């Protein structure tokens, strides 16, 4: 039997720690959507951070809304009942803003589904001023806002710490919807698609993209970024629930950005400059979260670039956390770091050689060599870590069959080191290698790289 949605929301809240509930009267009301299920969305650090940033403002009330699970979705569609928020069970259409935090391209269609479930027209040009303002942000709009532009009044491109307060301030000061859109278009990081005309060539490519006269919109919308994180709280889990993938984990961002600039890496290009969150604040937040989590998930693309990473790891271990790092950059993996990860109870580590040959690695601007990778593997397995996860890519420019063979050879060499250490330990570890095709991302050196032309091969 399908449960009632109101009941589900009450059950969800009864198992959560850290959610925010405020009276709506006199406040700017924001329904914040994650375009996937509760189980997926509540492990998303970006989503949790936007929720915190809005609710930190006294005159803003922000409530969450998720895509219903498959079973609930059928019941919801059958009943015609509109999409409602978790905290107060209020229909999304009653809010001032319907904001989406979109992290993954595969959730694009869920944005459209959620607009429909809310009882709103999916396309912005079919909605009225009485509908909530639809604002779409998150990592994907940072990469490329266009796929979702037709569905939003406003696209928020950039870092939430800059965008969330700016959106709330513009809503406070604006005199009506037109004035609001003009104010936002004048702010860095806000793109108002209806303020632009697009001209196409006969072959369908874009000939020109121009702001409409009188809108004041800039020709190029620049992403919003914060210059310094010294006074900022790092993004961290603020709502704990067992009903999500990383339910027992305290997630926290330690350092933002990566200076390596690998030619394919969207995150490297888009999160510059590298900014390290203050170690004392990271440890303070971890201490406060300790009653609710026994694992610390360190979310950063270049974790070991934090100048105080060893002090942070030691502090987390002393609090009794086991530490689960994201993929680690090989060039700054040191013996103390590996030793402390093992000491915390971690058994696996993830590294990204990307390819098997030094030549191709130089092409993509990743300077670590096979000799260094094998040397680090020795360090990893000697420390007691048992399992290694490897990320490889295929389809890179100038790749030959020899480069593909080199992936197999490097993996076999790593396995040799693993086996040698497993023998002395009397316990067999595991190597898991994943091989993914290159997907050229906007904003990187490879953004215009075409797919291989079958006519030429
Ligand atoms: S080292 Fe990793 S995070 Fe840094 S630019 Fe290269 S792929 Fe991106």
Task: Describe the fold and architecture.
This protein is of the alpha/beta class and 457 residues long. The chain folds into two domains: 207 residues, 3-Layer(aba) Sandwich (Rossmann fold); 208 residues, Alpha-Beta Barrel (TIM Barrel). The strands form five sheets. Strands 2-1-3-4-5-6 form a six-stranded mixed β-sheet. Strands 9-12-13 form a three-stranded parallel β-sheet, covered by helices on one side. Helix 11 packs parallel to helix 12 and helix 12 packs parallel to helix 13. The model has no long low-confidence stretch (mean pLDDT 93). It binds iron/sulfur cluster. The site of iron/sulfur cluster has 11 residues, from helix 10.
Summarize the structure.
With 457 residues, the protein is an alpha/beta fold.
- Count of discrete alpha- or pi-helical segments spanning 4 or more residues: 16
- What quaternary form is this? single chain
Overall tally of domains: 2
The CATH architecture designation of the largest domain is Alpha-Beta Barrel
The fold-level CATH name of the largest domain is TIM Barrel
Widest beta sheet: strand line-up: 2-1-3-4-5-6
Find the count of extended strands (DSSP E, 2+ residues).
16
- Compute the separation of the termini in Å: 55 Å
Average pLDDT figure? 93
- As a percent range, the share of helical residues equals 25-40%
Bound molecules: iron/sulfur cluster
Report the CATH superfamily of the largest domain: Aldolase class I
Layout of strands and helices, then pairs:
Blueprint: H1 5-14, E1 28-34, H2 38-41, H3 45-55, E2 60-66, H4 70-79, E3 97-101, H5 108-117, E4 133-137, H6 139-143, H7 146-149, E5 154-156, H8 160-173, H9 177-185, E6 190-191, E7 196-200, E8 206-211, E9 249-253, E10 255-256, H10 266-270, E11 275-276, H11 279-289, E12 295-299, H12 309-318, E13 322-325, H13 335-343, E14 348-354, H14 358-363, H15 370-382, E15 387-394, H16 401-425, E16 430-437
Parallel strand pairs: 1-2, 1-3, 3-4, 4-5, 9-12, 12-13, 14-15, 15-16
Antiparallel strand pairs: 5-6, 7-8, 10-11
This protein binds iron/sulfur cluster (SF4).
The site of iron/sulfur cluster has 11 residues, from helix 10.
């Amino acid at each position: 039997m399908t449960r009632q949605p109101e009941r589900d929301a009450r059950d969800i809240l009864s198992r959560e720690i850290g959610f925010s509930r405020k009276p709506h009267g006199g406040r700017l009301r924001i329904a914040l959507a994650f375009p996937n299920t509760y189980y997926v969305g509540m492990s998303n650090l970006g989503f949790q951070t936007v929720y915190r940033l809005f609710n930190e403002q006294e005159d803003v009330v922000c409530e969450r809304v998720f895509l219903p699970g498959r079973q609930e979705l059928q019941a919801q569609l059958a009943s015609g009942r509109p999409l409602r928020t978790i905290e107060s069970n209020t229909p999304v259409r009653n809010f001032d803003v319907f904001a989406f935090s979109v992290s993954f391209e595969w959730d694009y269609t869920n944005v459209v589904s959620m607009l429909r479930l809310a009882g709103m027209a999916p396309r912005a040009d079919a909605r009225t001023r009485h509908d909530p303002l639809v604002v779409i942000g998150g990592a994907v709009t940072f990469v490329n806002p266009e796929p979702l532009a037709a569905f939003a009044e406003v696209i928020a491109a950039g870092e939430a710490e800059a965008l969330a307060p700016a959106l709330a301030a513009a809503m406070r000061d604006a005199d009506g919807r037109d004035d609001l859109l003009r104010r936002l278009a004048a702010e860095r990081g806000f793109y108002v698609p209806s303020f632009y005309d697009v001209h196409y060539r006969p072959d369908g490519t874009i000939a020109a993209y121009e702001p409409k006269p009188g809108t004041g919109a800039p020709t190029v919308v620049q992403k919003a970024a914060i210059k310094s994180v010294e006074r900022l709280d790092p993004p961290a889990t603020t709502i704990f629930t067992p009903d999500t993938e990383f339910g027992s984990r305290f997630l926290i961002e330690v350092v933002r950005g990566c200076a390596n600039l690998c030619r394919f890496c969207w995150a490297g290009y888009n999160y510059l400059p590298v900014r390290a969150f203050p170690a004392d604040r990271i440890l303070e937040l971890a201490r406060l979260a300790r009653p609710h989590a026994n694992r610390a998930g360190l979310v950063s693309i270049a974790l070991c670039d934090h100048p105080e990473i060893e002090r942070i790891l030691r502090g987390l271990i002393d609090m009794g956390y086991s530490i689960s790092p994201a993929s680690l950059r090989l060039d700054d993996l040191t013996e103390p770091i590996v030793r402390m990860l093992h000491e915390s109870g971690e058994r696996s580590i993830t590294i990204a050689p990307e390819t098997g040959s030094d030549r191709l690695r130089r092409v993509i601007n990743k300077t670590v060599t096979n000799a260094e990778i094998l040397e680090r593997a020795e360090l990893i397995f000697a420390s007691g870590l048992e399992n290694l996860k490897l990320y490889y890519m295929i389809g890179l420019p100038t790749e030959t069959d020899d480069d593909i063979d080199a992936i197999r050879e490097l993996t076999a060499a790593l396995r040799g080191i693993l086996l040698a250490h497993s023998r002395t330990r009397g316990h067999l570890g595991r190597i898991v290698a994943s091989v993914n095709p290159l997907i050229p991302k906007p904003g990187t050196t490879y953004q215009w790289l075409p797919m291989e032309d079958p006519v030429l091969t």
